[in-house]
Please model this.
Amino acid sequence: MFSDIEIAQKNEMAPIADVAKKIGIDENCLDFYGKYKAKITMPELRKFQKKVLDPKNRGKLILTTAVTPTPAGEGKSTVSIGLGDGLNKIGKKAVIALREPSLGPCFGIKGGACGGGYAQIVPMEEINLHFTGDIHAISIANNLIAALIDNHIQQGNALHLDPRTIIWKRCVDLNDRALRNITIGLGGRTDGVPREDHFVISVASELMAIVCLSVSISDLKKRIDNITICQTYDKRAVRFGELKCTGAIAALLKDAIRPNLVQTLEKNPVFVHGGPFANIAQGTNSINATYSALACGDYVVTEAGFAADLGAEKFMDIKCRTAGLSPDVVVIVATVRALKMHGGVAKADLSTPDTDSLRKGFENLAVHIENISKFGVPSVVAINKFVTDTEEEIELLKKLCAEKGSKAVLCEGWGKGGEGMTDLAHAVVEIAESGKSKFHYLYESHLSLADKVRVIATEIYRAKSVEFPPSVLKKLREYEERGFKELPVCIAKTQNSISHDPKLIGAPKDYVFPVRDCQLYSGAGFVVVLAGDIMTMPGLPKLPAALNIDVDDDGKISGLF
Amino acid sequence: MFSDIEIAQKNEMAPIADVAKKIGIDENCLDFYGKYKAKITMPELRKFQKKVLDPKNRGKLILTTAVTPTPAGEGKSTVSIGLGDGLNKIGKKAVIALREPSLGPCFGIKGGACGGGYAQIVPMEEINLHFTGDIHAISIANNLIAALIDNHIQQGNALHLDPRTIIWKRCVDLNDRALRNITIGLGGRTDGVPREDHFVISVASELMAIVCLSVSISDLKKRIDNITICQTYDKRAVRFGELKCTGAIAALLKDAIRPNLVQTLEKNPVFVHGGPFANIAQGTNSINATYSALACGDYVVTEAGFAADLGAEKFMDIKCRTAGLSPDVVVIVATVRALKMHGGVAKADLSTPDTDSLRKGFENLAVHIENISKFGVPSVVAINKFVTDTEEEIELLKKLCAEKGSKAVLCEGWGKGGEGMTDLAHAVVEIAESGKSKFHYLYESHLSLADKVRVIATEIYRAKSVEFPPSVLKKLREYEERGFKELPVCIAKTQNSISHDPKLIGAPKDYVFPVRDCQLYSGAGFVVVLAGDIMTMPGLPKLPAALNIDVDDDGKISGLF
Model:
């Protein structure tokens, strides 16, 4: 048994120029970052964008999502990558589009985010560590915005910015709980104006959301201009554009908006670009990466963060709406182990066969299957096989899915790569080509912001009603009065339950969904609505993954998972 | 008249592989970052290091330094780059080694740091903005160290770290005064342990100093292990190695320790790598970049930050000592304008001819000429020509230098590129080949730390004595008792005067040099001694350079100087 990084390091990569050639991208249309990573040039990106304007020129769009996460893990990226390889294995021109990993989880609890086993993207160490610098660029641009705001106040505060109202937060791409609540500007007259501040992890920043939604530098600049940074003392909302430094921020991000190309272990093309969180932001790779994949591939496998209630809903209602996309099929990843946990089994007992708990935990998957159908998109269940799964359990899971009208396919990408994913590939192709998808949004843009929340909470989260504090209703009305009524909403809640309460595993229903706060992301173009305690700055665990990572004198990294 | 960025953008660059070939570096020994930037591979770097072990295999080492900076500017980088081009112009194989620019000054007051006019390094926008990500890697590695320290305390504090004694600071590569003095860890039990903290600009961090002094990944790891992070409650000094995460930090820096290759406007090779401040740190590019240049070129032009009292002294006593280097000639950059300011002329009046003030301000240059001779190295003065300089002023300056036994050469690199630098190139070759350099350190390693400070302050800064607070003497003795007596000292003081007091322009003497504090950089391998108020986190000015910077839809940047 080899570890993920050992498998990745044993693999011989193809030069990325050769991988690009397979999907019709010439070497001249790549900016190389070493031999195995490249960014698409701006003219080529524009060519892709123009091509996909006509839906007939697009590949089929396959979205991978999952059941509600448990400590057992579900392996969504592994399935997405394996499915891409499986599609290529059965002779289809398939391209994968994924998010790029944050350094926070990498040194924290989760490790890397490049798939696993024989379904990985490579070079995994470089993708996991600095990659092509996109997240670093976003972090420094985010922090330059913050420094410019504080400097405006420091230098006389001509715009009368109220330091108590600054909602733009600094960021760092690490898990660093000590930066959650801080006071800055201490020390005296020359050292800034004292105020409360908060760092978020870079991937939870509005700027990450903006970069992933921007299709051009002008689009990026318009969004940066529109960021709401704070209020004046007389309560006027202030846009960042008023500080007249938008060009400098965009200059820092000029390369970060262009997609990166890498490969799977089986040398198939993967666009890895942008990594917004799936609670506070849209949770999916950049629009530019999806456009590029749709322009180059006949089939595009992409994924959305966390479970279908968070990532898939945002993919449909935020990303598809902004980008004019329309998914042809959704793959819902489930594992026997995760469903048993939803059925009440403790993690330590997961290896014991237990069809009763599986049957009970299936309720969670059933909700997600139903939810996807509410967008008019057909779905297929991918059973990501673990060595401890029994045949009886797998057969039961297939039967339960069939009873819900959904096909379930066993996947062995982790152990066998694309070869273990051909069944799912065939199933996905059949559905995608059937024309069954009648995609529509969950809610229309003209609904009030509060009603949009009500639709998502009742239809997707299965709450019986939504409780809004009066202060939130007032803020939502203010956003509407400022002209933001048409925006989609982005609900930030726990990923560990379909509800707002992480303890409610399985399929909670008949509860009241308690909204806590809201925030306008006028740059990204959505309204964040918070329910429960949302982590925008994770912490490190007692034994962080950083303890295991090492590098030898040749630069070879070990202990990265 | 074109701006620097316009000149740079009109220039057609050679592929960096062709530039590398000119100095015998094969394409296979480069990791490309686009077509015009590359990192040297680890095996090639080792080859260079092995070659320069024998001084006979090294090129001649030319150090560029300058008079004490004034608001008039002196153009040290412009002279260094122009000299490299001038040496190539007269048929010598010359390589340049420079520091990489910080983003702080770039968006603050100073602008970029790639030379000026027709003596520039390119691609200047990319070198000035993210370059190959070295500083981003250092920033995040620095902040991961901080997060791991705070997490150790959070998770039970097994080592009994005293939060009041943490000297490891977080960093960001920006001018952000509001982060100078902060409190972190507020909010409650799950949000860290409250304590005071401070951000420094990344280039002032000990980790930047470490990366620039590390010749291999093992060397890097040893230095990271040895970083003093804080004390325990019973006052034992704690090394970062005790947290057992050194491998993870080194993994983040595995590429950052390898030199970057770019080119001048005249397509000559330049290693641009590492950018430590010249007050709190050693102020010169990485040892690996200097080794690489010495292995590839017959002549190597490098520079040290600020004036000769700061940068050159540290170059000699810290970098040369650590790396076994020995400069053959020092170029001291001066301008008529800067010397007139040292003679008391206001900035607004600099265009008025004024030989009296020039004569008076020459005192500053005279001190630096004498100082360089104290290291046994011959020097030559480079008069960086400005359009307002009169012939009479230039002749007077040459005459004054001659009276000090120093040749002064007029330089027109800014206006004419290498063609305007051939006189200096000939002068430098003549001195370098003369064998006149009898380089020695200013002080021996066996002196006590306090005596090392006394030697520098009296010999170089021209103080009559040094005043140490008892607390500093105690700390210095403690460092000695812990085994750090042999380390060199790195004095952090203002760059605007030869003394500790920025108001004392010209050639101050007969004053008391007041030490304020000291700090052990046990990872980098020197003791920082602070005098006066040192800025380790600059602030943005009222009208930051960020106001002028823009980028168009093709990614072309404007307004960057």
Notes: The longest strand of chain B covers residues 512-521. DSSP finds 19 helices and 24 strands in chain B. Chain B has three domains: 4-132+256-434, 137-252, 449-531.
